[in-house]
Design the sequence.
């Protein structure tokens, strides 16, 4: 008889909530909230409460698999590892290291992302390394880095309670970052003015003081319009602009063109409403912006992010407690995966591959020659595979067959590879196409660190032994590196890996496992006596002066026309997580929502002769899905919403892979579709 | 002064737990364990672990006890270091036939004044105190907030509760944290009572089902209110119902395993039965 509770960090979204995993006789039986946790305060959302449910699922891959004929068959570890090591070396020899690509994972630990990065760069010798951050906050990393010198959430989650105005845009906060929404609700109870600007009337709009509904894909226009109003009314912060920024004159030349009438024409926003938002945001003692994919997943993603940065700097609403720009990160460790350099152009801590000093530092530390040019991004790797330039792809804990835009194109690319290696908990849609599948361990079976949305480094701890023959991701990488003759992969514990990370990463240098046991640490934390950083850019931006970048509004890549008369916008639902590999194996979550629905405005439904729960066919230039209709005022007339969590009605069969020129993020949030009633239900 | 009492209680608890483990009439002692800077529920099975036994934390351990004993079927007997509210939970669970009190040795732990204040408690002690000293009956209810809720007229109440329940993100935290909300088939999860897959959940069915089901069971521990991420005053809602039962029937849940509830809320009656009854009536 044995009952224990192990403290860990929730494996779902980027909030970073504290969980206790309940273990009875070496099985996970429950999850409980950590009462004094700085983020979750003794609460959790439905996903957090169910965090243990997928871990021991019958569907877990329990043995390595490889493709024999058309089927995946079980094999043993030695054979599978040997086969991958041989094939990778042969492909590298024949086509060069850049014929191989790596997709890292925002679900894996910092230690594992670091090792995967080290493996790709030092063992294989390529910078073709990326992960799903490309599909969510790549514009944030690019845009905020350009404006401030650092692309992360500027404030902390608990600080939101200290804000006097919170502007939420493009974030369905209650559904996707529930424990951050909790802070916003509490901030409002304490008197904060909450503004929601979103094309959909989302749940948190009901709990706001001002809700504004712009047309899809018009963010740059309303932000420019807001800045114009602020400037004309004299609500801007002259002192801040003079002392802490550069490039204001050019900014003014651009935003001054966005008169209230012009903005109304583009966005549909009434000038009075926008002016109210502008006044409260500019004049509150501490205003915070909260945003997510509604801002980033556009061909103008980086423009949108830079526009928000412009707005914050114009009003001096940044670099103060409770005031700044807060991109909420999606995955439990997407911040960490970026910090660890699982990106094609940077090492850990955003040290640039192109920076000779950084390059030399990592070559010296790892004792190898490293590639000098930045590599391919996620979507570019798929394109390269389809074109026959990429021959092998190693996917650790990702599912591009559901998460990437234009799935039919992804399938074409993956099928064209000579070698597809997948390392995962479950046979997902990507693993079905794999040549080799390594069974990996979940968050509950291993130790390590993850970095949540507010730059907070937290530990996950082993609660139970690995399921079947599954191994931790870091052990698999080490074994493979060893087989390929690489030195420097003989770690015994995640602590040893973490020590190497902090020796190479100034922003993590002061963080140790033992400090994490008793302290809350947020990077940058440069030394062991440094308390970590609650909010960024106090007194000075990371890059010195904040940089204004004037931006003109451009329409989305694809807008409705006669053939495809509706806007489609995609996103997530509260009860599931991303491609559903974990959440759809959770009985609690599946009971709430077993299949997808498409949200349709009742006025459109009437035009189309569609009733509640009818099956409809939604099609775009790239594909079609059949899905049940839900009639709701959440979406405006003319816009359909489909979540991307469900493979059987995959929104990404429809989406457009046109992408932002700077950050390469695809435009998941806007494309054109047509909608028809499907054959009657039996 | 308070610190002295606290330290003493911990020693007392360790000593009693050690004795129980040695004498061998329990398989384990369910209490709180201090790890790093956290306190977690834990089943102590050896004397060596007891150095880290802690009493300062605040988890509804009765629910853990119930789940453990159910999982181990009819084997095993455990001791529970139980505060007043934990004991009252166990008594209500016994009334529901969810636990057999013969399989549980309750080691009564008295709360300090500060702990009682934190929990808005009125009875911060179990029937028999073995650890600490009872501070006696107190009244730390938030009478101001309760008064505000009760003074509203019907229209104001409807507006207040509609708005505040609209915050709900259906995390089920109120249910999950409550030791007495332990039905295997939970009505809140059934689409015929509450539409699934939507937030906020339907008003008022979701919250009223829970309020009614717990009307004669809630012992006023306020764990639901603390677990609610959206700041819904669930504990106060239940307190108002408790006050009503107390004033009309003199009934208080959790007092005595043999005391019967004055109201019959059979949560076992499902829609099938109801439908059957209705059909019977039509025939």
Sequence:
């Amino acid at each position: 008889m044995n009952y224990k509770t192990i403290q860990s960090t929730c494996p779902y979204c980027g909030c970073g909530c504290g969980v206790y995993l309940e273990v009875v006789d070496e099985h996970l039986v429950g999850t409980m909230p950590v009462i004094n946790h700085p983020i979750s305060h003794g609460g959790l959302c439905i996903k957090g409460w169910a965090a243990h449910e997928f871990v021991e699922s019958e569907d877990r891959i329990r043995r390595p698999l490889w493709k024999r004929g058309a089927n995946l068959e079980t094999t043993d570890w030695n054979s599978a590892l040997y086969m991958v090591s041989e094939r990778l070396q042969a492909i590298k020899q024949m086509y060069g290291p850049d014929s191989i690509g790596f997709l890292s994972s925002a679900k894996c630990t910092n230690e594992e992302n670091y090792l995967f990065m080290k493996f790709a760069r030092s063992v294989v010798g390529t910078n073709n390394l990326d992960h799903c951050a490309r599909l969510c906050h790549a514009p944030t990393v690019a845009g905020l880095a350009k404006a401030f010198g650092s692309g992360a959430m500027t404030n902390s989650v608990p600080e939101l309670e200290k804000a006097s105005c919170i502007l939420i845009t493009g974030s369905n906060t209650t559904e996707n970052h529930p424990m951050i929404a909790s802070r916003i609700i509490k901030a409002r109870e304490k008197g904060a003015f909450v503004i929601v600007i979103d094309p959909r009337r989302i749940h948190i709009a009901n709990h706001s003081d001002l809700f504004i509904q712009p047309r899809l894909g018009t963010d740059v226009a309303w932000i420019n319009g807001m800045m114009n109003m602020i400037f004309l009314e004299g609500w801007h912060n002259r002192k801040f602009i003079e002392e802490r920024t550069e490039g204001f004159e050019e900014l003014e030349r651009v935003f001054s063109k966005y008169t209230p009438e012009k903005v109304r024409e583009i966005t549909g926003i009434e000038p009075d409403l926008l002016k109210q938002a502008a006044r409260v945001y500019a004049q509150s003692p501490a205003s915070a912006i909260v945003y997510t994919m509604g801002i980033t997943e556009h061909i103008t993603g980086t423009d949108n992010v830079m526009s928000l940065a412009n707005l914050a700097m114009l009003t001096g609403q940044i670099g103060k407690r409770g005031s700044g720009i807060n991109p909420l990160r999606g995955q439990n460790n997407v911040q960490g995966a970026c910090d660890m350099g699982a990106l094609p152009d940077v090492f850990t801590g955003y040290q640039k591959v192109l920076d000779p000093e950084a390059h030399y530092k990592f070559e010296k530390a790892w004792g190898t020659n490293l590639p000098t040019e930045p590599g391919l991004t996620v979507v570019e790797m798929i394109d390269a595979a389809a074109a026959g330039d990429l021959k092998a792809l190693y996917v650790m804990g990702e599912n591009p067959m559901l998460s990437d835009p234009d799935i039919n194109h992804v399938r074409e690319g993956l099928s064209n590879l000579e070698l597809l290696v997948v390392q995962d908990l479950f046979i997902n849609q990507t693993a079905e196409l794999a040549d080799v599948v390594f069974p990996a361990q979940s968050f509950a079976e291993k130790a390590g660190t993850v970095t949540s949305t507010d730059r907070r480094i937290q530990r996950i701890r082993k609660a139970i032994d690995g399921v079947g023959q599954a191994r931790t991701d870091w052990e698999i990488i080490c074994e493979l590196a060893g087989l390929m003759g690489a030195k420097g992969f003989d770690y015994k514990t995640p602590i040893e890996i973490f020590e190497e990370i902090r020796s190479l990463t100034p922003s993590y240098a002061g963080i140790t496992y033992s400090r994490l046991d008793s302290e809350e640490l947020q990077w940058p934390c440069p030394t062991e006596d440094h308390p970590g950083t609650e909010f960024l850019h106090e007194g000075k931006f990371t890059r010195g002066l904040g940089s204004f970048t004037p931006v003109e509004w451009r329409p989305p890549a694809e807008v409705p026309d006669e053939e495809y008369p509706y806007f489609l916008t995609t996103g997530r639902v509260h009860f599931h997580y991303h491609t559903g590999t974990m959440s759809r194996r959770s009985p609690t979550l599946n009971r709430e929502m077993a299949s997808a629905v498409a949200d349709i405005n009742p006025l459109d439904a009437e035009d189309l002769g569609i009733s509640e729960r009818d099956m409809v066919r939604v099609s775009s230039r790239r594909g079609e899905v059949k899905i049940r209709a839900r009639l709701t005022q959440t979406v405006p007339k003319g816009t359909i919403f489909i979540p991307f969590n469900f493979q059987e009605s995959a929104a990404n069969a429809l989406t457009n892979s046109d992408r932002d020129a700077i950050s390469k993020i695809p435009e998941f949030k806007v494309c054109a579709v047509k909608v028809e009633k499907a054959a009657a239900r039996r | 002064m308070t610190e002295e009492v606290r330290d003493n209680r911990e020693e007392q608890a360790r000593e009693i737990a050690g004795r129980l483990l040695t004498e061998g009439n329990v398989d384990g002692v369910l209490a709180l364990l201090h790890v790093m800077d956290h306190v977690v529920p834990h089943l102590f099975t050896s004397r060596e672990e007891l150095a880290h036994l802690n009493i300062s934390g605040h988890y509804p351990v009765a629910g853990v006890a119930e789940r453990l004993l159910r999982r181990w079927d009819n084997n095993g007997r455990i001791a529970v270091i139980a505060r007043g509210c934990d004991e009252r939970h166990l008594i209500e669970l016994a009334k529901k036939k969810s636990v057999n009190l013969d399989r549980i040795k309750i080691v009564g732990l008295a709360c300090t004044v500060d702990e009682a204040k934190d929990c808005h408690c009125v009875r911060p002690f179990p029937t028999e105190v073995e650890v600490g000293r009872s501070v006696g009956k107190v009244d730390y209810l938030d009478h101001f907030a309760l008064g505000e809720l009760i003074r509203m007229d019907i229209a104001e109440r409807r507006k207040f509760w509609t708005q505040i329940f609209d915050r709900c993100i259906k995390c089920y935290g109120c249910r999950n944290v409550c030791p007495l909300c332990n039905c295997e088939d939970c009505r809140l999860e059934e689409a015929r009572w509450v539409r699934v897959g939507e937030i906020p959940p339907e008003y008022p069915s979701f919250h009223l089902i829970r309020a009614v089901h717990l009307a004669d069971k809630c012992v006023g521990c306020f764990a639901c209110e603390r677990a609610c991420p959206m700041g819904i005053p669930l504990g106060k809602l239940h307190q108002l119902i408790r006050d009503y039962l107390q004033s009309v029937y003199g009934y208080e849940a959790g007092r005595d395993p043999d005391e019967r509830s004055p109201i019959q809320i059979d949560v076992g009656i499902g829609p099938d039965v109801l439908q059957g009854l209705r059909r019977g009536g039509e025939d």
In short: Residues 138-328 of chain A form a domain with the Dimethylsulfoxide Reductase; domain 2 fold (CATH 3.40.228.10). Chain A touches chain B through 47 residues (CB under 8 Å).
